[in-house]
Design brief:
The complex is a heterodimer of chains A (91) and B (264). Chain A has 91 residues and is an alpha+beta fold. Chain A has 3 helices and 2 strands; from the N terminus they run αααββ. Chain A has a domain at 21-83. Helices cover 40% and strands 16% of the residues of chain B. The chains are: A alpha+beta (91), B alpha/beta (264).
Chain lengths: 91, 264
C-alpha cells in the first residue's frame, strides 16, 4: 500500500470490513418478495415443492436435490417458474 | 382542459413522499403548468409545512367533501409560484373522514382547472392509501435503496395493479453514490431488476433538503442543488421529455481530495 493510499484511507469515511452488503440486501429481498407475492410461508413453499416433486416422479425421473422454484414479475403478471432437472440415466 | 392526476405513494413511511410531491409540483408549476397538490394524509398533514404554507390554511379537504366550503375556497396559492396550489388535509380528523368516491369527485372538479393534480398519499395500505389512489391516472412510487422500502414498494405495485392503476413509475430517493460505489447500497439497476418497473428519476441524498424543509421552500427553487436538478428533470420527464438519468456524484472528503490531487 502506497503512502498516498494510506493517507486517503485515513481520511476516507468508508468501512472496509463490511463491503458488498448490497448483495446480502438483494438476496434477502428476493427471498422476502417471493413470500410476499404468493403469500406462502417458507414451510408451505417446501411442502409445495415436495408434493410437486412427488407428482413429477410418478411419471419421470427427476433429480430431486436440484429442484428450483422462483416467482418473478413479468410485465403485469407474476409467474412461478419451477425447474425440475431430469435425471441423467446411463443404461 | 383535462388535467392529469398522479398519486405519489410508497407503502413505507419516511421515504420522502411529501418532499417529492412538493418538489415535482413546484417544478411543474415553474415550467408553466397549473398544478394542484392534494394532501391525502388526513390527521397527519405535512405538505403545507414543506411548502411553507401552514399559516394560510382556512379550509381543508374534509371541509370540501362535507360541503362546508367551495373547492376554490380551500385551495391555497403557493407563495413562490403562482401556478401552484395546495388542497391541505384536515389535521383534526382521521383517515376515515373521506372515502374514495369523494376524493374522485374533487379530482374530477380540479381536472377542469389544472394541468396536473398530484396526490400525496399517506404511508400504509389502509383507507388513506385507497383514497389517495382513487382518482389516479398514473402512480409514482418512491423507494429508498433499502430492503424495507423496496419490499413495501413491491407490495404497493401489486395493490396498484389490482386497483387498475397500471405501469407505475419508480423514483429512487436518497441514493448515496459513495455507498453504491463500495457495494454497500443497491444501485439503480439492482432496484429495477427486483421491482421490474420503469425509473422516472433518481434523487441523491443531500443535506440541503433538510435546510429547504426548515425554510419551507422546495429545493427546486435552488439552482446549486443536485437533488433540485433531479426533481426538475423528473417534472420534465412527466411532461414527456426524454431525458437521461443524472450522473451520480459523490461528495466525500476522499473524492474532493482525489480531485484536488488530480486522481479523478
Amino acid at each position: 500500500m502506497s503512502i498516498l493510499d494510506k493517507i486517503m484511507k485515513f481520511f476516507s469515511d468508508e468501512e472496509n470490513e463490511e463491503t458488498g452488503s448490497k448483495n446480502i440486501a438483494k438476496d434477502r429481498l428476493q427471498f422476502i418478495l417471493v413470500q410476499d407475492r404468493i403469500k406462502l410461508t417458507p414451510d408451505q413453499m417446501e411442502d409445495l415443492k415436495g408434493e410437486l416433486l412427488e407428482v413429477m416422479q410418478k411419471y419421470i425421473d427427476v433429480e430431486d436435490d436440484r429442484v428450483d422454484m422462483e416467482i418473478s414479475r413479468e410485465d403485469e403478471r407474476m409467474a412461478m417458474v419451477a425447474n425440475f432437472p431430469l435425471e441423467n440415466k446411463k443404461d | 382542459m383535462q388535467g392529469k392526476s398522479i398519486v405519489i405513494t410508497s407503502g413505507k413511511g419516511g421515504v420522502g413522499k411529501t418532499t417529492t410531491t412538493a418538489n415535482i409540483g413546484a417544478a411543474l408549476a415553474l415550467a408553466g403548468s397549473k398544478t394542484c397538490l392534494i394532501d391525502a394524509d388526513i390527521g397527519l398533514r405535512n405538505l403545507d409545512v414543506v411548502l411553507g404554507l401552514e399559516n394560510r390554511i382556512v379550509y381543508d379537504l374534509v371541509d370540501v367533501v362535507e360541503d362546508r366550503c367551495r373547492l376554490e375556497q380551500a385551495l391555497i396559492r403557493d407563495k413562490k409560484t403562482d401556478n401552484l396550489h395546495l388542497l391541505p388535509a384536515a389535521q383534526t380528523r382521521d383517515k376515515e373522514a373521506v372515502n374514495e368516491e369523494q376524493i374522485n369527485e374533487v379530482i374530477e372538479e380540479l381536472r377542469e382547472e389544472m394541468d396536473y393534480i398530484l396526490v400525496d398519499s399517506p404511508a400504509g395500505i389502509e383507507q388513506g392509501f385507497r383514497n389517495a389512489i382513487a382518482g389516479a391516472d398514473r402512480a409514482i412510487i418512491i423507494a429508498t435503496p433499502e430492503v424495507s422500502a423496496v419490499r413495501d414498494a413491491d407490495r404497493i405495485i401489486g395493490l396498484l395493479e389490482a386497483e387498475g392503476v397500471n405501469n407505475p413509475d419508480l423514483i429512487i430517493n436518497r441514493i448515496k453514490k459513495e455507498m453504491v460505489d463500495r457495494g454497500d447500497m443497491m444501485d439503480i439497476d439492482d432496484m429495477m431488476e427486483i421491482l421490474a418497473i420503469d425509473i422516472l428519476g433518481v434523487v441523491p441524498e443531500e443535506e440541503k433538503i433538510v435546510v429547504s424543509t426548515n425554510r419551507g421552500e422546495p429545493i427546486v427553487h435552488s439552482n446549486n442543488s443536485r437533488a433540485g436538478q433531479a426533481f426538475r428533470n423528473i417534472a420534465r420527464r412527466l411532461e414527456g421529455e426524454e431525458l437521461p438519468l443524472m450522473k451520480l456524484e459523490k461528495d466525500s472528503f476522499l473524492s474532493r481530495f482525489k480531485k484536488f490531487v488530480g486522481l479523478s
